[in-house]
Amino acid sequence: MSAAVHTNEITVAVDDAQPASRGGFATRLGFILAAAGSAVGLGNIWKFPYITGVYGGGAFVLVYLGCILLIGLPLMYAELIIGRRGGKDVFGALRSLTEKQGVAGKLMSYATGFLSIASGFLILSFYAVVAGWAIHFFCVSLGVIPGATLGDKTVFAGVAGNAWLSSAWHTVFMLMTISVVMLGVHGGIERVCKILMPLLALILVGLLIYVGMTGGLNESLAFLFAPDFSKLTGEAVLEALGHAFFTLSLGMGAMITYGSYLKSEKHVVRDGVSVAILDTVIALTAGAVIFAVVFSMGGLDVLGKDKAGPGLVFQSLPLLFAQMPGGTIVAVLFFGLLIFAAWSSAVSLLEVVVAYLVDERGMNRTTAAWLMGWAIWAVGLASAWSMKVLGFLDDITTMYMLPLGGLLIAIAAGWMLSKKDRESGFSAFGNVGGALSKGWTFTIRYITPVLVAVVILAKVGLLKF
Ligand code: PHE
Predict the structure, then answer these.
(1) What is the pTM of this model?
(2) Contact 219/43 with Cβ under 8 angstroms?
(3) Can you tell me the distance from the alpha carbon of 384 to that of 135, in angstroms, rounded to the nearest whole number?
(4) Which residue has its alpha carbon closest to ligand 1 atom 10?
(5) Which of 68, 75, 249 to mutate to test ligand 1, by most ligand atoms within 8 A of the CB atom?
(6) Which ligand 1 atom is nearest residue 247's CA?
(7) How confident is the model over 57-66, as pLDDT tens digits?
């Protein structure tokens, strides 16, 4: 049964089926900032710039934008509507929405639920280690780490190659993440994201103005936006697709879980689009800033190909910051930005796992957050001790688990949900809504799953281009 609460400007449908104790987002802005907080993370500021560097710039960016449009956006709506209509964690939401499908529905909810929790768990385990390095660099920039300065080439090896130090920062970051999730969706996640996201935007704009004044921005923009298709390889296309999932937090139920805390589905479509736009704009701006720094100091060739990889942000940039006027302040701001972005993403990763224990197992939120937080921390130690493990976990989650999760979610949304559940988010658009929902249904049924399946098959070597 549903009741409606009327306030001055909005009508909010309140679902009686959802226990008040589950909590939820208090405002629409709070939800958008939390979802954008989940999307904007290390993926935007650490990963997007370096994979763009490795795959040669413009053409890769174009393919990536195509993936966001054809796969990211349709799936974003699919996840949000599943969460909102299902009103529970990934397992529970899918179970209740696919009930009529019998065994197939049950299987779908188990497979997707299991995969989502495994992905959230594994991603957070290595994500927290990388975020820990950002805290180290933040402290180095502030000058509070004895004997370490930004211009010193050995700082990165000094932390990434030092398992004890990496583990210590990893522990700090996990504690930051647990303490937010423990406080709940409104009291923790929403409140923190409402502060972090505007700060993040402010820092990014500040950095953009700075590189606009110090030079390199024109070359940087040319690098990002002038496509050179000769550099585009099959591998680059696969990477672009994997990254589209990662950067929008799709394929592992983060958006299903956040969607389940929405009070109404009225704005789901618009808000999903806003989140995707915010995420893309922030990735491109971060890329513009980082490459401007690189080009103002002599360009990618100066760095060498290996330095443009995962080490771009941690190995090359600090050295460049050290040589720039006002570089110390820029470095403090930059690493602060990285920590904020990672923090608001990490809480969404932990929330997927915690929501499962709270909704399905009836566990108290605080217990669930500590229990899972420490379990993830323990697994994360493996990444803190070995870069190989870190790279391996990054690869299997981004390239296989998230796309596979996305494929299952697309099939569930397109083929297993009732028409009413499927289309309810489009009702806010009046007449246009019908056409929009037809377009979306077609995409999520045919285009998204086929594209994702092709990429997965190519990745495992069953399809060759
Ligand atoms: N979207 C985040 C980023 O770009 C990572 C993430 C993936 C967060 C999946 C939640 C779920 O860094």
Answers:
(1) 0.91
(2) no
(3) 14
(4) 249
(5) 249
(6) 4
(7) 899 999 999 9
